[in-house]
Amino acid sequence: MAKDSSLKKRMLAEFIGTFLFVFVGAGSAVAAQSFAPGNAALLVAALANGIGLAMAISYALNTSGGHINPAVTIGIWAAKMIRGIDAIGYIAAQVVGATIAGLVLVWLLPAALGGAANYGAPALGSGTGVLQGIVIEAIMTFFLVSTVFATIVDKRFPKFGGLFVGLVVVADVLIGGPFTGAAMNPARAIGPQLAAGFLANWYVYWIGPIVGGLVAALIYKYLFMDKR
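Structure (tokenized):
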């Protein structure tokens, strides 16, 4: 995937793409909670996160492969489609991009509005336990990474940028948003969490997505990928 670009260029693409996604996704969470009436807030957040991710993937796709997510990068590494050193560089770029996006939101948005929504950082919903949260995040990320493999990694599928991955995110947020915040992405979670100083249950958003992403990647790689 995008092997003709230097690692620095690919890392820059991942950094910018992840910044874009988190800025739109976390920013929309603040705006939705502050201004969208009632249950419309969930729909606004779902659409904004899905569209934001589709934009970010499309931006970075030709340079880095458009991972924009440590769970995706780890899955592609497990499928032996990226070198370990490249995967580490990608993940570092994603986390830094997400954190800077979170800090920019803290700087730009009114404290009363941003603080009430923890600047878009995901959190477990009322009544959702840690184990439940991990499993929910794992299942949602399984579908996200499966779609990445089916529509981006697998060369048999005609390319539509990040459109279908974004649609999966819309669906996942509508399902899981009230329970975990539906991050499906360790960088999307940790960036705003660090910026807001809100680290409650941060490990949920690493364990769940990484496990779900690994299972999805290995299943697609060894059962569905064209061996030719």
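The chain has nine helices and no strands. Residues 7-35 form the longest helix (29 residues).
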